[in-house]
Amino acid sequence: MNKVIEADFFPRESDLESSWPGSIAKSAMEEKRRILIVDNDRNSIHVVKILLERTGRYLVLEENDADLILLDIVMPGTDGGEIAAQIQGDPELHRTPIIFLTALVTKAEAKTGLRIQGHPFLAKPINIPELIKGIEENLPTHATF
Question: How far is CA 78 from CA 6, 17, 71, 81, 93, in A?
């Protein structure tokens, strides 16, 4: 017997239409934007992937062909700053916007407009409406495919 787990932090379709910019019906007519998440915490990636895809506006990928990259800073081995530097040095990826995700700053610090290596950042735990706002502010106006 399969159980369906209902959690308060998962937005319902009616909540999405009323609280987030745009509507699901409108965004369903538009092409979904591709988002790449790089993070060592599989559970965080899974939750963020589900929540972003549930808006109907995004397709969350695990490849290097994205309109925007969400990048965790603290990871074992190579940290997010090193990965960002590699992305900036890649001729095919250097124009891809990066938003750092980090637990190293407070929510208040994240709202100051400061940047890490020239990139905006959001404090963990991630607030999905703030994440969507950050994504929309940093996506190129016209994606190049």
Answer: 36, 39, 12, 8, 18
